[in-house]
Structures are given as C-alpha cells and as structure tokens.
C-alpha cells in the first residue's frame, strides 16, 4: 500500500472548493511533524501517543464513548513494525497508516475499522503475520487487514493487480469496511503521488478513475470520491485542471451571489417556522469543469449550490414547498431521491430556483442524517453487521453468515459474475465495464421480487440476473403485461416476467450478445457459445413467406338484419373483429347491398359513424355455431404448429384457414379462422391454446376494416 510523497496539487487545492464540512473543524495535519512525533513512540501507559492524538480527537467527535485502548495497542504495533521504513518522500512510513486512519476517523468510522486501518500494511510490508493480528485484535480486524493486503507479484506476475482487486471485492462482499479502508488508502496515496515517475502517476490515476472512484460512488462515500476526482483530474488532464483552477481563482467572490440567495431562503424558512440550516456549498474542481462544459460561460451562482439541512424527512418537503412558493422553481431540475433513494444509499431533494436577477441556484435539501450518509456512505453506518445469532440472540444464523444490510445489488451481481471469469484479463476488463455503468434501475419480477440492473439493461440481462444459466432457455418476456422480445430495453419500475422453454437443451443465440449489457449475461452467453460452436456457426434462416392454408367450411352463426327495403340482403360478420354469439353487435350496409356486422366495441364502428353511415339493427339467429378468428402469439419451437392444431381439433373445432408468419426474434404469430359448433366453447378453446407450451397469448383478431366498407 506504499505511497510516495508530495502531490501535484497543493493541500488546499486537493481539498477543492467543495471540501466537506468535516475539515472545517480542524486543519489537515502536517505529515512531517506527525512523522517526527511517530518516531517518539508511545508516551505513557495511560496516555495516547501524540502522533495518534488527532485520530483520537476525530474519533471521539463521532463516537464519544469509544474505547481508545485498542487504538493505542494497534498504533504501538504498527509504529514498531514499520520502524526504520520510510516513504519515498523521506517521511517515516508510519505517517501513511496514520493519515489513512485519520481520513476514516473524520468520516465517522467505528473503532474496529480504525484499528484495521492502522495495521493495514503490517502483514504486507513487515514481519507481522495475520495470525498475530488475529491473536491480538480478533477475527474482524484480521479479516479487514487480510482483505486489503496485496497479492505478491512474485506469485502472480502481471495478474497481481487484477487478482488483488478481485480478492478485495470478494472480501468486501462479506464486509464493506474492507473497501472503506482501501478507498482511504488510495486517497492518501493520491495526495502524496508527486515524487513518482510521471508514467506511474498516470497509471495509478487511470486505475483510480476506472475502478476506485466508481466504487466510492457506489458505496456513497462522496467525500472521498470528490477529492479523488480532483486529484485524478490534475494528473490526467493538467491543462483543463489549470484552466478550471484559474477560473475559480478569478471568481473568488462568486459565493456572494449564492450568499444573497441563501439569506433570502433563510428568511423564507424562518417566517414559515421551519428550523433549517442553509449553507453555501462550493463545487469542487471536476464539478465546476462539468458545469462549464454544460453551460458555457458561468455566473456566480454556478460555482456552488445551496445546502439546506433539517431534522426530519417531512421538513424536507416543507422546505421544498416554501421554495417553490416563494421563488420561481426550475421544474426540470427537480429530483426526489428521498422517496426513491439512489442505489448508493444517497437521499436528498434536488431543485433549483431563480432569483429576481435571473441567477439560478441549485438547492439540495436533506436531513442531518442524510447529509452524513451522503458524505460518508457506508462508512457513516458504523458496523453494519449483526452477530452470528438469531433475532433473539440465542439461535445461530444459518451457516454462521452475518447479515449485511448495506450489501447492494450491484455488489452481489459483481460477486456472482466474477466467479465465472477465472482469466485475470477478462475479469479486469469486465470489472471496468461494469463500474462504468453509473446508473441503476429497479425492475419488478412477476413473483413480487425485484432485480437491480444497470440503466439500459435488456430482458436478456434480467433473464440471467434472475435465472443464471437457466436463462439459456429463455424464449421471451412479458414487460408490464405485454409480450416483448429479449432485446427490449427495460425502464426503472417495469415489471418483467421471463418466459423459459421447457426444453433444457436450448441455448442462446449469438445475437443475444448485442443486447446484453451486464458482464454476467455476456460471460454466460459467451461460455455457452464456446461450448456449443455449432450454434454460433448456424447461419440465419432466410426470410420465409407466410405459411397458410384454407379449408372450405360452413359459413358461421346465423345473423339477421332489420332491413325492410332489402329483406334478402346478405349478412356476414366483419373480419376485423369476428363477432360471435353472444357479443353485442351492430351492422352497416356496404357496397353491393350486403350488411357487415361488427362487435359494438370495434374501432371500425366509430369510423363508420364518422363517415355518416347509418347503423343497421342486427341480431343473432337461433343457431349457436359461429366462425371466429384467433391470433396465437408464441415463441418458435419444433412441432408448435402441430401441437396447436391438435389442441384445436381436440376441442372439436374445425380450422377454416390458418396463417403462420415468419419468426421474428424467436416470436411466431399464428392466425386461425375457426368454425365452432357452439360459441359457448370459445373461452375453453382459447384456454386450451394458451396451455400449449410456447404459446403466451391468444386473442380475438383485430384487423383493419376491409376496403368494401
């Protein structure tokens, strides 16, 4: 975990203009002074060493009753084991674990995390063994230390870095505090990266950008994410960074515009009787750069945002109501992350209001607790784990596993697919691609469960997320109750029902890779295609004309029309809606004097009325037999047509004509015109057709009205 001294960005700049409030209470410590103090070793038995005093002060600010004795013991072991080691900047190596621990202490991490943070490099860089850590500090601390310990290049070669991240992610799946320590470790390394060779700075910055920053975002640790973004920005885009730094320096008074609006907001909320703290929150460098790219020339209010902190959730909405009443709201900027929290635990109301001079101020509204979680994410939640006992404290949890309420869906998915990628290069590429998806949607399963998927995911991704390898036999899906192809892109809140083939030997098409967004789906599809090369080589079938056949059958149910002037006029059911007894019907005379009969709800009825056609009273005759057109939507498989025809014949129904359209994305549409001996048997017939494997919808035909009307 070694990091190496002086940073290309000064300490003040590294904080950025959006440095979190946690740093306002105490200045950043002088690492060189801290290094000298570290060399002094422990003070007296009843007093913490001076070098760890800053950590103790920050820790007690969040946890007043914390027992600091274990921190003292961890510091003594770390200082002794690292004694004689120096960073490339010349400072004693102990300054690094101390600085990492201080970062976590300021974020509110609990004592176990801080203990492991002090010791996080001992097993990797000193003679201390993991068994010694476990013996002195317990299993939890040992697990955290082991989780962040790098794998040796001697053993893994070029695969050491991706395999180290794999190891850390697997450990994070059982304890998210592993990644908290890693993020703080990388932040201090990035702060002190200046003595490294430029090419190594760039390599580390790219890994930070592609892996660590997305992980910080997904774990909700915004305080670490924003500073990491600025440090990476300075290394990878030095010219844009300098332009942004100069722009901020030229607009040092930009906060005045927001301060004026903040005073107005404070007055409005005070008059409304809402206790709130209104703060001006400057943007950090990357945020200013993004806003500049989006809006062009910036006004004073663009260099920051207003932060309104209240005590209760209900107060957030009360504040929103007052702002939208007393100011001009920018409705397009409103987002409610309280009712629908982001996947990284973030909760807040976002809005924007316009001042009388036209300046627009973005406003964040949240409770103090929401703000704490927004800044520190999972770090602020303390120890999220329950003991290995049941709810009453007596029965052990199944398999001794600990419940982790903070383990998000994206992490579970990542842990699932990484098992299928033993190749380090494939894992590394897939990990970066997965983390690049910075938005997540939630879709509902037909059984009432939910699936968390990246934005842009398709039914293919949902199938593999829900069914794993069984999704190889997926035929299609219903999305919000409607039949959909596997390529259908899902939206947040959709309900999806995956339709699986009964034939377990079926497999995915190579075209599925065009629709798969998640690594889990792509890896599973690729593995199946590699195991079944004959499927990948199967050429696409040439487009086939519709298959149809007809049979000469009797006409249908008897229909009568009340036409005194033409009592012998032919009366026939319309092909667009195929009415059958006992449907409510109406008729219209068409060319040639015949009468076409429609169901009363048919769209053609409204069309005929708009054309000024006069309805004709029609009614059913005594006979119960009828002719009807049914449409069966299904997914292609062998013998489907034969099985459908057999189901129809078993019901005692005659086929007048049938049309089978060419398959499209595995979907097949069958249209049957049928002669029923009794209209009362139509519901049973439709149920029998739906029961045929592969058939997912059977409906009455609805075709456009024929031209003779």
What does this 3D model show about the protein?
It is a single chain. The chain is of the alpha+beta class and 709 residues long. It is built from 27 helices and 22 strands. Strands 1, 2, 3, 4, 5 and 6 form a six-stranded mixed sheet that branches. The radius of gyration is 34 Å and the shape is elongated.
Task: Give a quick precis of the structure.
The strands form 5 sheets. Strands 1, 2, 3, 4, 5 and 6 form a 6-stranded mixed sheet that branches.
Detail the topology: elements first, then pairings:
Blueprint: H1 11-15, H2 31-39, H3 53-62, H4 69-82, H5 95-107, H6 111-118, H7 122-125, H8 130-137, H9 139-148, H10 153-156, H11 160-174, H12 177-191, H13 198-218, H14 222-236, H15 238-250, H16 255-271, E1 277-282, H17 285-295, E2 304-310, H18 313-326, E3 328-329, E4 335-336, E5 349-354, E6 360-367, H19 368-376, H20 409-418, H21 424-435, E7 440-445, E8 450-454, H22 459-467, E9 474-479, E10 482-484, E11 495-500, H23 519-531, H24 533-537, E12 547-550, E13 559-561, E14 571-573, E15 585-589, E16 595-599, H25 603-610, E17 615-616, E18 618-620, E19 626-635, H26 640-650, E20 654-660, E21 667-676, H27 682-690, E22 695-700
Parallel strand pairs: 2-6, 7-11, 14-16
Antiparallel strand pairs: 1-2, 3-5, 4-5, 5-6, 7-8, 9-10, 9-11, 12-20, 13-18, 15-16, 15-17, 19-21, 19-22, 20-21
Helix pairs in contact: 3-5, 4-6, 5-6, 5-12, 6-9, 8-9, 9-11, 9-12, 11-20, 12-13, 12-14, 13-14, 14-15, 15-17, 20-23
List descriptors.
alpha+beta, elongated, six-stranded mixed β-sheet, 709 residues, disordered N terminus
